[in-house]
Design goal:
Strand order of the largest sheet: 1-4-3-2
Helix content: 40-55%
Mean pLDDT: 84
Shape: rod-shaped
Structural class: alpha+beta
Oligomer: single chain
Amino acid sequence: MVAVGELWVALKEAIVAYTGLSPAAFFTVVAVAAAFYHVVSGFLAPPAPPARERDADLDGVEPLPPPVQVGEITDEELKAYDGSDPKKPLLMAIKGQIYDVTQSRMFYGPGGPYALFAGKDASRALAKMSFEPQDLNGDTSGLGPFEIEALQDWEYKFMSKYVKVGTIKKVSPVTEENALEKAGHAMKPAEDVQ
């Protein structure tokens, strides 16, 4: 205990000799400087990231599976990917290109504001900014320049945000003329080679 007393006496004498302050004034200055440093560093330090409630809500949710390539499918086959089966990806098409929009299920899935576009080629509806059932198709004929530009903007957005997983197979309607033409090609005799 005597050594601590001697150390304190030596410390007091050193403080007075080197700073010209009494020990009480010296320790007050040190305490104020430490408080000032703490306050200033608090202003300059980046803020701590906020606690994310959303992440806590997603703890029990499984991550999305990777997009599955569907290749070339018909409009009718695309309807199976409208979100009614939660085990299937959510797909929609623009200008015949099919995109996996599963990551935006809250928008394109059942009950979402754009759910009517899922499982369809929504080119005409997007170009016209329409929710009318007669516009929910891939027919872009008769669109004006502003509508074509709007559709192009939608296509760029989908290309940058979603994975392309296939294309719409163009099915030509079977008409009598097409059937005869196909039959004519099948029955055409081979030309003689001389």
